[in-house]
Amino acid sequence: MASNVDTAEGETVILNCIDSNGSTLDVHHHEEIFISTVDVSQWDLTSLAHRPIIKIKANRQRLIQQSTYFDGLLSGSFSESCFDSISIHWDMESFLSMLRFISGCSLDLTSENFLPLYEAALFFGVEKLLLVCRSWLGYVTSEGWIWPPQLCLEDLVHIWEYGRENAIDFLPQLIDYLARNFIWMTSCKTFHNVPFELLLSCVRRPCLTIDSEKHLCDALLQWLVANTITSDLLSFIGDARLEILTEIRTTLLPLPFAAGKRRCPFFSKFAERSVDAICSLATSHSFSLENILGGGNFNQLRIRLTEYTKILDLSSCPQINLPLLLLSMLPSDNLDKMLTKKLSQLSLKLERPNMDISRIPWENFPVLTFEAVQVVDVSNCPMLHLEAAMECFSKSFPSLTTLKAAYILNFRTMKLHQLLQKCPLLSGIDLTVDSTPLLPAKLSVISSFPAVMLQTSTSFHEETCPAVPAFHFVRRLSLITKLILEGRTDIYDSDLHSVAECCPSLCCINLNACTSITDSGISVLVLKCVELHSIFACDTSFGQNCVLSLCPNISRVDILAMKIEKHTNSLANKLQILHIGGCKGINETSLLELVSQTHRIRSLCLRETQLVDNSLYKFSGSSLEMLDISDTKVSCHAVSHVVRRNPDLKCLVARGCRHLLQEENDILESSPALSYNCPVLYYELGNSCNLEEISLGWGFSFFSLEALRPAIKMLRTFVVGLGGSLGEDGLKLVPTFCPWLETLILYFQVVSDSVVRNILETLKNLQVLALCYCFGDISSLSFQSSAPRLRKLKLERVSAQMTNDDLFTLTQNCMNLTELSLVGCRRLNPESQDTISKGWPGLISLHLEDCGGVTAKGVTSLMNCQALEDLLLRHNGLGIGRNFIICAASRMPLLRKVAVDVCDAKDGDFDLPDFLDRNFLRIVKIARCNLKRRTLDSMKSGPCTTPVHAETLILTWDSKKLSKTVVKERL
Questions:
Q1: Which residue range or ranges hold the BACK domain (predicted)?
Q2: Which of 3, 217, 818, 875 supports an S-S bond with 850, CB 3.0-4.6 Å?
């Protein structure tokens, strides 16, 4: 309620408020508006702010008391002091808000209205409002996180610019705030509008908080590109703004990222130095800070860790080892010569084969604590001694909940229990490794050799107690809810039993391709982990016992008698994800029983199982989002039954289902019009689903595409396999029907230059393109289109006429590739190696097969692709040296998979790497061919022969052993 003095006669003044931005206001609001501060709480600022002129009756004394401007104007010697009415030219909204504040109303501050209010308070001398504005800005910028409803980057930039122009002292806290929230700042649409001086100030702040050095580098390069005219890229090299790139700690960049930036005009020199430094550290057998930096400043080797860091991402950094990690956790002002010497000695100790990390004097390293860190990603860090690193994590990261350590093969899985003991808050662990190609259900083994135990990777205690399970029972029960062990062949049933004992809260388990575990072992885990709702067990022995564990209310007699009922209390009924593709141990009857009880399932993978129509007809779930039934015997009507009940289906994978074609043929015979106009399955999909991924083959045609059209407007992944036939007209419609495609994979389709050009020119979001064994050889015209977003390209048996010049053109138009596969490009020559290594220096996967004479003179330039993780070279020319595998592993720190053919071996064979020579290798495949005459006629004209595959030698390493196997298949 207003005070009496507000309404007293002679104590009021009329403020004629004229908006300084009147020209931009609503022309329909020219009538005079009269309001009073007595009713200030009822003002509608939204409508009043659009008025060009407003008359306000206000209390004179209150204005004089609250504002130095009105104090001087109304009580001083100015002529206005005796006026009953004065004019004010100011932004209407901010002036009205200031009057409301002066009259005692609360203030709702945001980054949008902060600056107008601050300027108003400064001009009119409202000290209380100035204090409130400063306090608000200090409060919201003192926190380590973003306030999305209140803060906008564009507004913060305006505040910074205003403060800089007017020398206001809140600039440091604003810069610190942006530095702490740098990743948020770079994700904003207006990031490219941030002034260079502000960006540089943020990067130089000690509190700069980023997930990894890669994020900083990527952000700075994006800003430079956005603020540079394309025609000025070359001349920009001398621009002073490039100094900001010196702030990047290039030695800490991921190797694939740094290698890929060799072609960046801004960063090429930095990238070259970065790759050299990374490879030098990654291949060094000893760690010496003095040798690396001459005993100088260690900042370039310090991982950025602040009190606000939540995620530490060191993935694909082969240079990261324990001493380097420790260096970043030690106080910078306490790093004397004695401590640096101890760090170097620690590196040497860890190289000893029988080193027990519990004997390391950890008290010598006074590590700091970073309470905010919750996620650590050290995937693809082969030099990191993970067991020892966990000691550091337990001390420095007490809040750690998620550990990602994929592709670290030298981690001994029997030490998993240490992770749970050292970091009790861990809820998610990822220990994925590359899946072994030795999947029993898919191979014909010719011979296998006794496993060679890797004694160099075991400690003294493990040698004396080899039977210790991976998860030794601990007194404090683990909080683990998600455990990923995909590809680990060193996990056995005893380990699963221990997991079940010490992880009662386990909700998600990934055992894909864990070939050493049995059906019984998995079933014990399923029975004991009652919270389990997500099971990934593809290509394992998942079978009858597991079905009985998931469906405990049935007996074996019930299964045989086919007494199917809904068992709401079964574990199967609780499942949300079940992936058991490739599991051959489940018969049709058991599979039917299992499928019939998965009522709540959201993601179901049953590829290559004994799935038939009856099982799908018994499926009563209505929550499916993903279904994989590829290479099964299901028909069109059965799949349609599932689709009809599951309108939320986003992903359907049905390649290799021959019965879909048979079903369509039956429909065609009975009703040709129905088949051509609305095929059953595709009609259902088109009517009820909004798909994001679809993979089809047999029976899929141009007419099917038409029926699917309503469902694929937002499609991201499209795969057409054997048995599908879209035709050229259908392929030309794909970009029109699916404009958001990111992945397009075509097998055995009819393609042409015009089809490929249309795909590359139209699909602006395309990241993956695979044309495999397609009909219609494409020419150099297909490579003329630019596709800067393309990351993965496969041209297999589709570009036989490709020359080195065509390959060079491809490097110019698809310059950001990280994965390349070329098969059957027989006109390529040894110069192609140089084209590939210079055009795509950041490749992580390279497959070259039957590509002319690429390796006829050996493998030289390809060794410059130092970030490679997967390399296949087969039938490309007789010139590869005997020690190639060992040499490649030593030059490429991240190389995990190598495949070669004896046909290309210059000396007739390859040296097999031992444990020390293999470095990071997980899988080596060496194929061998026999020479066979092509035709009977060719026998008359001489020894004209062609290679025919005979067998493949496969070497696989895990944390315990080396396995050697010879199989008939070409892998």
A1: 176-229
A2: 875
